[in-house]
Amino acid sequence: ILKRPAAESSGRFFIDEEVLTGAGIRDFTPYAVDPAQPLYPDLFLDRNAKNGTFTVK
């Protein structure tokens, strides 16, 4: 995000999962407090089941 042109990033809301996936990271296990447990979804986001996009609650 910090290396992107300002016009591309200014005023945008970034979601960790989207930024990391865009950077090629697919395994989020290292970000878990307990890697044996699934990560919790963000409480303020709804995932659109049809296309995988997010909407703010």
Low-pLDDT segments, ≥5 res: none
Strand content: 5-15%
| SSE run | HHEE
Cα gyration radius (Å): 13 Å
Termini distance? 24 Å
Please tally the helical runs, counting DSSP H or I stretches of 4 or more residues: 2
What structural category arises from helix and sheet content? alpha+beta
Taking the sheet with the most strands, its summary is:
2 strands, antiparallel
What topology, given as strand order, has the largest sheet? 1-2
Number of separate structural domains: 1
Number of strands: 2
Mean pLDDT, nearest integer? 80
The share of residues in helices is: 10-25%
Shape: globular
How would you sum up this structure in a few lines?
The chain is 19% helix and 11% strand. The protein is α+β, with helices and mostly antiparallel strands. This is Short chain dehydrogenase/reductase.
What descriptors fit this protein?
2 strands, 57 residues, alpha+beta, 11% strand, two-stranded antiparallel ribbon
Architecture blueprint of SSEs:
Blueprint: H1 6-9, H2 16-22, E1 45-47, E2 54-56
Protein name: Short chain dehydrogenase/reductase
What features would you describe in this structure?
This is Short chain dehydrogenase/reductase. 19% of the residues lie in helices and 11% in strands. The protein is an alpha+beta fold. The protein has one domain (6-56). It has a two-stranded antiparallel ribbon. It is globular, with a radius of gyration of 13 Å. The model has no long low-confidence stretch (mean pLDDT 80).
